[in-house]
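User: Please predict the structure of the protein below. I'd like the answer in structure-token form so I can feed it into my own downstream comparison script.

Assistant: Understood. Taking the following sequence of 518 residues as input:
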Amino acid sequence: MNRWFVIVGAGLLILCAALVVAAYALAPRIRGIAKEETQTYLQGRFQSSVQFSDFHVVLFPRIQLLVDGLVLRYRGRTDIPPLIEVREATVDADLATLLGRRHEIKRVRLAGLQIHTPPRVPGGPPMIKGTDTNLADKYPIVIDEIDADDALLVLLRKPADAGKPPNEFAIHRLVMNSFSFDHPAAFHALLTNPKPQGEIHCDGQFGPWRADQPSETPVSANYTFKDADLGTLKGLRGILSSAGKFGGPLDYLNVEGVTDTPDFALRTSGHPMVLHTEFTAIVDGTNGNTVLTNVTAKFLHTTLVTHGEVVDIYPKVKGRTIVLDAVSTDARVEDLLLLAVKSDQPIMTGSARLKIKILIPERDEDLIDRMQLDGQFGLGEVHFTNSGVQGKIDSLSRRGQGQPKNLNIMAEMSDLKGNFKMTNSAVIFSDLAFGVEGASVALAGTYNINNGQMDFKGKLRLDAKLSQTMTGWKSMMLKPFDHFFKGKDGGTEIPIKITGTREHPSFGSDFHDKDNPK
């Protein structure tokens, strides 16, 4: 019996040895078949020429394909970067996968993966001559899992945008499951957004791959964007988070989501505040241009609704141009002031209506310095928080009504409205007007966002005569001048000026203003 076991054992060892010898003897043939099959498949499915620096088949302890220096050039083009580059690719397979008709691969690991998606070119060249458009049927393949760490996705620009560097996204982790050229594949990706800098997690579906137009490959996913530092955008502060979804072809993605920034602030303000936005947008993945179809922003007790676009206009200038139209019929002036200035207390309170065109040219400078505004505003139920300023408004109403000593008159400013334009942090106001009971003011002038300096000139109109704005002997002294300062509709008209800073404004008459005579 022992002898029989020895004979059987020896026979098995000899058989195994024979199989190993045969496998290694067939290795060159297997390697050739595997390489040819791989080249044919990749060429057809990616519409690309295929190159390898090295190609190995490992048969023991498990079957693997080891590929070094894989390069796929879309339609053989050498005028643009390769569609796909892989430093090292490892394919875990079995013998049936290599030699049979049905290709089932357990895992593909890619090191040094770079994908350069060429832009869609209308009327481009036809598919490579001789390629089989039914290769998915001829060579069916399913990859259970694809892993790629520290990959790079580069969205090549259209010829019209060739002067700008391409958009690059560093993908720290990419896992795809059940990958097939016929069906979408589930994926998870972790990547870095350059500005504002932060990590994006995506879970969704990718594909099927469009070999004729890679930029039209569909993708859909839910995303989360956390701990994005707005400080990477000059002029802003705060840590932003966002969640939402996107879908469509790579070069025309529809995006919708929300953002939350608990500590949002402009450089000009010392008051971080909670900012919440809801948005829908269309993103051109080939150049990053974004159409903002709707953005609703809410902070404190104010709501702003905007739409516009973020586009790359000048090829040799860093950044993007932002063009927006913003409207608000539900705003508070104190919220807007806290957003814009560093004062501990806003100078006034009241309701606000806004209509603004916003232009931020693409330069690598502070956002506030680049911002250009052109708009109109209206304020209602305005009350000044500075007792000195409010006292002057109350006094103006009393004098305008000819009751300078009537302390029961407490004025509330109404119909404060005007047009404004801002360039290089300087705001130019025109048609600035407001009224209180018994008086109205019309002004024009400038205000500097950075230092708060103001310089306004205009006219003060009072219902009362000039002599009625005073009492006692002062009133008697002014009576001869009533005629000189009589307004067109009666009452009094006086040239005035407002100078100083937002914290310490100075009000006075301006009889020496040659450009604004009585």
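That's the full token string. Helices lie at 2-46, 95-99, 135-138, 333-340, 367-370, 387-400, 472-478.
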